[in-house]
Amino acid sequence: MPSCHVHPLPYRCDPAAYFDRVRHAPGAVLLDAGRPAALRGRFDILSAWPQRTLTPLPHESGPAFLQRLRQGLAELGPAQAPTASELPFLGGLIGYLGYDFGRRLEQMPEQAQDDLHLPDAQFGLYAWALITDHLHSCSQLMFHPALPANERERLIRLFEAPTEAADAEFRLQAPFAADIDAPAYRRAIERIQAYIQAGDCYQVNFAQRFSARYQGDPWVAYGLLRQACPTPFAGFQALADGGAILSLSPERFLRVAQGQVETRPIKGTRPRDADSERDAAQASALLASLKDRSENLMIVDLLRNDLGRSCRTGSVKVPELFALESYPNVHHLVSAVTGELAPDKDALDLIAGSFPGGSITGAPKIRAMQIIDELEPTRRALYCGSLLYLDVRGEMDSSIAIRSLLARDGRISCWGGGGIVADSNWQAEYQESITKVQVLLQTLERTCSP
What we know:
Strand content: 25-35%
Helix content: 25-40%
Number of helices: 10
Distance between the termini: 60 Å
Shape: globular
Oligomer: single chain
Number of strands: 23
C-alpha cells in the first residue's frame, strides 16, 4: 500500500498563522483543538482546495449520500501512514452534516421554516492537510499519494514563505436578538411537558436562536470567539458564498480509531462563577443533581442503543459516567460510551445509525425530533449537526455542533438550548439557554459600532 508523504514545518500552537494563508481558498477548513488554552484536544487539521466537493442532491436520501461519500474515498484511494507516524488523517473527507440531514435518514414533518437555506451537508475530498500534533509539539504537511508532486511543492512553498499580516475586520451592526420571547419559550416548555405527561417522550432538547446583522470577515469573528471560549472540538469552515461555519464545541459526537468507537455526550450544565468558592459549589451542585444525572443517563441509554446498531454485539460499554468538565463559562456533566465496530460496518454506517446525536434531540429520538420541528419556529441548519473528518483508512472524529454560529448573507446566527424533562423549570431552562452561549454573544457584541 502506498505511503503518504510528510514535510515538517515549524510548530505552531495556534493554527491561525497557518490557516491565514489559505482562508480565502476554495474549501478552506480548520478542525481546531483550541490550544493552548483548551487542553483536551490533540490535533489541529486544516486544508483547502479539495479535489471534489460533495453536497446532497435535492431529493437524495441520507444513505444514498453516505454511499457517495464512500465512493469519493475509494476514488482517492488507500494509503498508509509513514513508519512510526501517528497522523490522525491521511486524506479523505472533511466537512459538516447539518442537523437537518437527519430528515434524509428519518421521516420528519416539515413545519419549521427553512430561512437560512444551508445545504444539509457539505464535504470536501482532500488529498493534503496541515496537521499539528500538540502532544509531540510538531506541525507537518501530509500529502496523500494521489496528490501530484508539483502541488506538493506549491504547498510547501506556501507554508514556508514569510507570514504576511492579515488585514481584515468584523463587526456587528446591532446586538443579537432572540427569535422568540420569554412567554413563547414558556409555552413551548409547557407543551413539551404535556407531551411527557402523555407518554410521548421522556426528554426533548429545545433551543432558541439569536441573530444579528454583520459586516466583515467571519474568520476575524472566529479568532475573537476562540480567544474568549477555547474548546477542544472547535472548527471553521468557509462557505462558497463568503459565509462560514464557526464552531466552539466542547462535545465529541463519534470517534472511530482502529475500529474502536467512542461518544461523549454532554447533559447537565451550570454557569461558572468568578469567585472560586462559589464556582466550586456550582460544580458540586451539578455533580450531585439527581435531575441532571437522570437526564444524562437517559441519553447514555439512547446512545448505547444507537451504537449497538453498528457495533459488535456485547462490545458497547459505559466506562465513564457523570464526569465533570469545566469550560470558561460553564461546567458540564459528561459521560462516555464505547464500542467496537462490527466487521460488516464502517464509520458511515455508524453515522447513519446515530445521527443526529441523542444529547441534542431527546428520548425517544424520533418523537423528540418531531416535537422539536413542531415547536422551534425555524430549522436548526448547522446547529446540533456535526463537523467531522473521515479518512481513507476509516478513521473518524466528529463534534456535536453546539456553541456554533452560522455567518451567511450578512447575518450571523447562534443557538442555545437544553434538555427538557417533566420537572424542568421554564425560567431556569430559559436562562440556561442564554448562559450556554452568552460568552459568544457578548464577545461579538463588543464589535458593534458605537
